[in-house]
Design goal:
Elements (H helix, E strand, L loop, with lengths): L1 H52 L7 E6 L2 E6 H39 L2 E4 L5 H9 L6 E4 L6
Antiparallel strand pairs: 1-2, 3-4
Helix pairs in contact: 1-2
């Protein structure tokens, strides 16, 4: 009986550690989704600005906010800078997307290794699955690594 009581807390600690790791991984994935969405919105704004100022005369004066300071420039100076910013945003989005896919794969491997299942409502599955894709998923951890539900 003494051996059982010693092994039980260690086993429970391992389950809690796995559940904690799973939770942290889910949080990281949700943060990546959120950041990617923010950057995609910023990318769309840059595209709108580029489309609006591209047909204008390159000598025309315009104003641009740089580090909280409004500065006067020409369209010829601003357009290349906005295009470079858009390209930089796209590169960051691509890197974050790669990191997201890697994290999702690691989470899937963890779930398979410890037989973790996320319990969802039957009819709500498709709407929650969409929310998960957008980084706002909530679920209940069940399976071998869960404490109790």
């Amino acid at each position: 009986m003494g051996d059982y009581e010693v092994d039980k807390p260690l086993e429970m600690m391992n389950e809690q550690a796995v559940a904690g790791k799973w939770s942290v991984m889910r949080s990281d994935i949700n943060q990546l989704y959120t950041k990617i969405n923010e950057l995609e919105q910023e990318l769309n704004e840059h595209t709108l600005v580029i489309n609006a100022i591209q047909p204008l005369d390159s000598a025309r004066r315009c104003f641009r906010m740089i580090g909280g300071v409004l500065v006067e420039r020409t369209m010829g100076e601003v357009l290349p800078a906005v295009q470079r910013n858009r390209e930089g945003l796209q590169e960051v989005i691509n890197r974050l997307t790669e990191a997201l896919e890697k994290k999702k794969k690691e989470l899937t491997e963890l779930e398979a290794k410890y037989k973790i299942k996320v319990r969802r409502g039957g009819d709500e599955y498709s709407s929650r699955n969409e929310a998960r894709k957008q980084g706002a998923s909530q679920g209940v951890l069940v399976g071998a690594a869960a404490s109790s539900t």
